[in-house]
Structure formats: C-alpha cells, structure tokens
Write a structure and sequence with these properties.
219 residues; alpha/beta; Nucleotidyltransferase, domain 5; 7 helices; 8 strands; elongated; disordered C terminus
C-alpha cells in the first residue's frame, strides 16, 4: 500500500493530517487535527489554489491588465480585482533609517493614474532615495497641496537635508528654500523609476503622440 505525505496548507506539517471526506467537485479533502482546519490539494476552480494570488500580483507588476490576467490564469475578473484591492502595501519603508540617524537625500515626484475612468484621476506622490535605490514613502491623492502634505507627514520622522524636485509650484510653496533644489537634472533617477513603473503597469502608460498615431493608422 502506497503512503502519501500531505503537507498542511496552513502550517506546512505532515503529522496529524487525516482524510476528511470529498468536496463538491469530487476532490479529496483533508483535515488538520491540530489547527482544526480542512483543505484540499486539488481544486476545480483555479483561484482556490494557493499560488494563484501571487501569480496575479506578479502579472500586475509585469504590465498585465486585469482582463488579461483573468484570461491567462483562468480565474474570474472580479477575483483579480479583489486580490489587488486586498493588498495593503506599507506607505513607509520598513528600513529603520530614522533609528540609525541616517541622513537621506530624496528625489520627489508625482505620477498620474486613474480609478475606474480617466476623469477620476489619482496621483502617486513618492520620495525616492537614489543612494539606497528605494522608495522611502508614498501617498495617493489629487495633484494638489493636500496630497503632498500627506507625503510630508510620512517623511517627517526621517532626517532629510535636501529635497530634489521639478518646478511644480506645490513643492516650492511647501518646502523650505534652504532644503529645496529645483531642476530636472537632479531628478533623473526618480524619473527613471517612473519610466520603469510605466513599463510594468499598463494603468500608468501615458497617451502620448505615438499612441495616437498608432490608433489613427489602425482606423
């Protein structure tokens, strides 16, 4: 008689696992006697498989749209939307720069996106540290002072001697003159990050002249 070791889905152990009947689709169910939770190894619906949620996020980060992801992974459109909406990324980096008293140099920029339709615009405001190559903090909102002040609030616990931005008026109105350096030559790395995000996320792609030319030729 063959013996198959079954890893518990939630605690990844092989002991105390027993068969627990058959599911509605005819697949064997198992139950963990320790945590009292039941699970299956096979599912009729692809979205129930543990690795699918990670695949949805990976496809989103590699320029796949919601409908394309649902079609490729053979899951429902609403399943993809629900997975992305349930993500709770941290607004501030987890690296304790503030506790280590490390001074940061931040390139700050804003990036356009939308929710539902293009008239419902949302802007991503974030601070990029070029030496450590990471986002220090980010905030979402309109392209106005309130959204930038929210980003400032998140950055307030860090020591930042200099901010590098473009000439957008919100920055000049809210940043101290002695800490504010203006010019595109000083924001090249955050602009490079913007381009990377646009390449990977369809929602951030701009409708530029090239897109309009392609659309006109197609007609």
């Amino acid at each position: 008689m063959a013996t198959i070791q079954v890893n518990r889905r939630f605690c990844n152990q092989t002991e105390s696992v027993r068969k627990h009947g058959v599911g509605a689709a005819g697949f064997q169910r198992f139950r963990c006697l320790d945590c009292k939770r039941s699970f299956q190894l096979d599912y009729a619906y692809e979205a129930y498989k543990p690795e699918v949620k990670e695949q949805i996020v990976d496809m989103a980060m590699n320029s796949s749209g919601v409908r394309e992801t649902a079609r490729v992974l053979k899951v429902g459109y609403n399943t993809v939307l629900r997975t992305l909406k349930n993500l709770t990324p941290k607004q501030v980096t987890t690296i304790p720069f503030d506790l280590a008293n490390i001074e940061l140099i931040c390139e700050v920029d804003e990036q356009w996106s939308f929710v539902g339709k293009k008239k419902n615009q949302r802007w991503l405001w974030y601070a990029w540290e070029p030496r450590y190559k990471r986002v220090i903090a980010h905030a979402f909102g309109k392209r106005d002072t309130d959204a930038f002040k929210e980003l400032q609030r998140l950055l307030s616990k860090f020591t930042i001697p200099f901010y590098f931005t473009d000439d957008y008026g919100v920055y000049s109105a809210n940043l101290p003159i002695e800490k504010h350096i203006i010019g595109k030559r000083y924001t090249q790395r955050v602009e490079r990050t913007n381009l990377t995000l646009r390449s990977r996320l369809k929602r951030l792609v701009r409708k530029n002249d090239w897109v309009f030319e392609v659309g006109r030729d197609a007609r």
